[in-house]
Amino acid sequence: MRLFVNRYYPVFINVYTIGTLYLLYFGEARDFPDSPFKINYIPFQTIIEYVTLVLPYRPFEFSQNILGNIILFIPYGFLGILYPKLNQFKWLLLVFFIIINIIEFSQYYFKRGFADIDDVILNTIGVTIGYFIYKKWFFIKDK
Fold first, then answer.
1. pLDDT per residue of the chain (143 residues) written in tens, 0 to 9
2. d(CA 125, CA 71)
3. Alpha-carbon dihedral 56, 120, 70, 134, rounded to 10 degrees
4. SS3 48
5. Of 110, 135, 132, 108, whose CA–CA distance to 120 is shortest?
6. Which of 27, 66, 89, 92 is deepest in the core (most CB within 10 A)?
7. Are 92 and 37 within 8 A, CB to CB?
8. Spatial separation of the C-alpha atoms in residues 20 and 105, rounded to whole Å
9. Which whole-number Å values give the CA distances from 104 to 22, 34, 85, 123, 128, in the listed order?
10. 116, exposed or middle or buried, with CB in 10 Å at 0-12, 13-18, 19+?
11. Measured between alpha carbons, how far is 21 from 13 in angstroms, rounded to an integer?
């Protein structure tokens, strides 16, 4: 199983990344011509709004945003397959945190979405889940 994953993960993650970037920049509801673009730097504000205001009335929108932001980034927890240094949680978290912030602020800059600290939190939860799945299922030791 590990050989299969090690062999095909590089192809998968590259194709997956192209799809993810497409969703993040050009996917549904990414063009907001009349909406003011903003930066949300208050942690958990959007998450609380979605749990209290959206979940009771529009559960699909809740799952698409909140759960989608987590699930979409789980495969990136396996990056240690490609980059052995990322087998260490602290390095994976640092690299991912920098990259996801670049993506969030570029969405704001290019007017393709909002820069939201809650997206960074949810995406990081996804990577963390992926990392622990990777460590548990593939028994790969830190170097």
1. 667 677 899 999 999 999 999 999 888 766 655 566 788 999 999 999 999 999 999 999 999 889 999 999 999 999 998 999 999 999 999 999 999 999 999 988 888 888 999 999 999 999 999 999 999 887 555 44
2. 9
3. -160
4. helix
5. 108
6. 92
7. no
8. 16
9. 14, 20, 24, 11, 18
10. buried
11. 12
- Specify the residue for token string 């996804």: 126
Q: Which two tokens stand for residue 71?
A: 């699930």
Residue the block writes with tokens 């730097």: 41
Locus of tokens 């960074």:
120
Q: Is the dihedral of CA 43, 111, 53, 68 positive or negative?
A: negative
Element holding 116 (H helix, E strand):
strand 115-116
